[in-house]
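Researcher: Last one for today. Full complex below.
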Amino acid sequence: MSPSADEGPDFDVLRSTAMEDLVESITRGNPTEVKVVLASVVLGLAVYQVLLAAVAYGWLRLPFLQQGSASWTHRASGDTILVLTLVIAIMCIGYSGFEDGGAHSIVATILLGVFTTKVLVVRFGGRLGRLLPLLGVAVLILFGITWLTSAGDFLGVG
Amino acid sequence: MAGRPPQGVQMLGSLLVAIAIVAAAIAIVTAHFGPTSSAELDAREERLEQREENIEELQELEEERRERDR
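Model: Here's the assembly. Have a good evening.
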């Protein structure tokens, strides 16, 4: 049943319209393009993260990069990825909404869950720290699939 | 280890690589978009509208001319 005029404004609709307007104005009318660029930046940095992690763990030895430096850059780049991912997620859900049953929505939700777990393990993990390489690779794979089901589709790659 | 640059240089270098990756991703993706920015699309839409208006105007003039000839 649709709400009558007496029931007042539909706040959900107003909120979603305000969010759409905000995303439109921030991206100057190119929300999809901006999201695709940001997602591609995140994917590029995520690949670099795995390389840095391999150096930090000593699995990959480079003559010009020590484990400590690789670890420091891994953290700095990871913080950037976290912020960018949150911005993309907010833009995506705020502008396009949550598509029930869509592959992109499902994979992106799993990605956010695994990513949050990884951040929590880094900060408070203790013994769970040995799971970090596995979580890192999982995050990279999920970033790849999330990118393919959205930005890749848009660019004609997926 | 001998031969390795100082740690500060290593950090700066690895950060610069990250910045280069960001710049390359932006350049490659935006080059892939081509003329699909909203400004370009608006301009293209305006040109199409203008062309349609011109065609309509020409048709009207043609009709007027035919009526005058009768």
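Chain B touches chain A through 26 residues (CB under 8 Å). The two ends of chain B are 100 Å apart (CA to CA).
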